[in-house]
Amino acid sequence: MENSKQLRSWLDDMELPHPLVIAGPCSAETEEQVLKIAHELKDTDVNYYRAGIWKPRTRPGNFEGVGAIGLKWLQEVKKETGLKTATEVANKTHVDLALEHDVDLLWIGARSTVSPFIVQEIADALKGTDKVVLVKNPVNPDLSLWLGAVERLHKSDIKKLGVIHRGFSSYRKTKYRNIPEWQLAIELQTKFPDLPLINDPSHICGRRDMIFDVSQTALDLNYDGLMIETHIDPDNAWSDAAQQVTPKTLVQIMEDLRIRKVTDQEAEYRSKLGNLRAQIDVIDNQLLDILGKRMEVSDQIGELKKQRNVAVLQTNRWNAILGKMILEGETKGLSEEFVLRMFKAIHQESINHQEKIINA
């Protein structure tokens, strides 16, 4: 994308004293609900009031949004509170209706980003718009697909662009609803540092008690803002109840978050150092997650060995693994001494797991 610095001009022009905040309910349910939440958010750090009007669900039969009538409620929000409005669009009809009702920010959802056909249809419908358009990452961890969607919009002469990191789907069960895969967002940030990057901790976490920690990690990684689902009665929300917070909780989260401020001549150094340390923290957590999965496989091997009365230590297998890892380590700049120490420790932990199962 040429002249990428122009992409963040809309954000810089806002001259915000804090990261951009997009908040509001997962779904617009009733006019009363939409307006009540808006009034509780109007004097907070919230810059855009979000509400899902059309809700694409994984399976039919669930609540799929109130439809176009909800856009009139957003108009009323702007009239009564002065908050700018935001909603998701998934096709040309959605775009036309959102523009007709003067929605200020439109985002393309994860299910839409996976399809270049859908993205192109939306890009054509938005051609030349002065509205802010954000692109959520696709449901699968594919950086090229994510950037491709941004490029299609950029080619349609849409200047106010940005991306939303909402995590990635996985078949394996983790503490997250959608695994962050922070390294992908970091790589995107490295390639296009001027592309505004917003974090969506609600969809990453899937539960409200984790939202603060994920938000803090995002800010430590120099994200430009947060999109947090907010509801007056989260437990009884019509969609994604577990991941929504109350307006009061949102205010507390924003007060508690640590935001690095430029205060002296070493600000650039400290900012870069803080960003790199945050990247290390992310990778360290990934290492622990991977090691935990490795031990789960070791447990399964222990069960098999117990059934067949096989010894825990298989020397030939262990020597083959060690030789291979030493060679692999060399290609990644890791010394033989380090690789030996690390894999001996991993191997010993694996033996401990298997012995515990065999001797149980």
UniProtKB/TrEMBL annotation:
* PROSITE patterns in the cross-refs: CHORISMATE_MUT_2
| E.C. number | 5.4.99.5
**Signal peptide residues on this chain, from the entry's feature table:** none
Q: Name one GO molecular function term.
A: transferase activity
**Which Pfam family is one of those matched by this entry?**
CM_2
Annotated InterPro entries? Aldolase_TIM, Chorismate_II_sf, Class-I_DAHP_synthase, CM_dom_sf, CM_II_prokaryot, DAHP1/KDSA
Q: Which UniProt keywords apply?
A: Transferase
Q: Which residues form the Chorismate mutase domain?
A: 267-358
| Superkingdom per UniProt | Bacteria
Give the GO terms filed under biological process for this record.
chorismate metabolic process
The answer to keyword Transferase applying to this record is yes
Name the record gives this protein:
chorismate mutase
| Annotated source species | Lentiprolixibacter aurantiacus
